[in-house]
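Good morning N.,

You mentioned wanting to compare the apo and holo forms, so I went ahead and generated the holo version with flavin-adenine dinucleotide. This is what I fed in:
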Amino acid sequence: MKFEERVELARYTTLGTGGPARAFGRPRSVDEVEALLRRAADEGLAVATVGLGSNLLVADEGVEALVLRLEGGLATAEPDGVLLRVGGGAANAVCLHRARASGLGGFEFACAIPGTIGGGVRMNAGAYGGDFSQVLDRALVASADGTGWLGPAELGLSYRTSNLLAGQVVVGAELRLHPRPPEEIKADVRALNARRKAAQPTNRRTFGSVFKNPEHELSAGRMLESCGLKGFRIGGALISPKHANFIENAGGARSEDAVALIVEARRRAHEQYGVELEHEVRLLGDLHVPALGA
Ligand SMILES: Cc1cc2nc3c(=O)[nH]c(=O)nc-3n(C[C@H](O)[C@H](O)[C@H](O)COP(=O)(O)OP(=O)(O)OC[C@H]3O[C@@H](n4cnc5c(N)ncnc54)[C@H](O)[C@@H]3O)c2cc1C
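and this is what came out, ligand included:
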């Protein structure tokens, strides 16, 4: 399979930042993923996968890696009894639509998570009490060592993370859902979306929650709000005036602006509450959040 060169990753992140990938591939089948992984190994190139880039900060200078984006047959969703067989590149919205049309409930929590199945498994994405670990039967994972099915325990799914490494590509998954009338699913989704719209900046370029919620009576958002950070800006990146655990692209933002905001937010939360906030967003390329006090 051909590598594309210097594809700008800003096109593939919801924040709209990030430089070019050294090499880029759009596999449409498991065979094509395997061929690309073999070629990357032969050329000594690291591999990373992007889904919808909705929890991703990519270095402004670009990424010295083969970046994969799963398309075609790897972005579909097909019901089979109470299972939904999905491609790793299938958008959550597509999967939820197929599930609802087939009278399958259980994936409603993902209605406001604008990612793909692969990103959802990697992050164990979740909302409103649900997450991928509750619906995932198994995931098909390809790497330079081969392709095989892994269950939730082997994937190590826990709060907004898993033990998947950069060169491991989720090419497919099986979600175990349950029969539910489509009208009930629709009503739940409508209510969840309304809650989301009331609390979070839904019409801005963001990458979702910046930090995981700490073990503290305050959520990360409330903590940063009480540090006076709502509306705080560095370069083109802005801590959302609506919800302090979101960073918006207020125009011309660079990933390094967002990282500078992360560093400042961590410093203030530590100073005021003694809490070390851990960022949820994944960093790709030469981007670093230094240890506190470093
Ligand atoms: C407005 C908004 C609201 C959000 N709300 C929520 C929420 O409520 N709950 C929540 O959990 N998240 C939320 N997010 C964050 C984000 O949508 C989720 O983390 C989502 O699961 C990321 O999926 P993605 O496909 O966009 O992954 P990306 O952001 O593209 O990538 C995230 C990580 O997954 C890896 N990855 C992506 N695809 C694959 C694959 N096929 N195989 C292996 N690794 C892969 C990437 O390399 C990266 O490490 C929100 C984001 C936005 C912008």
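The radius of gyration is 19 Å.

Happy to go through it together on a call whenever suits you.

Best,
F.
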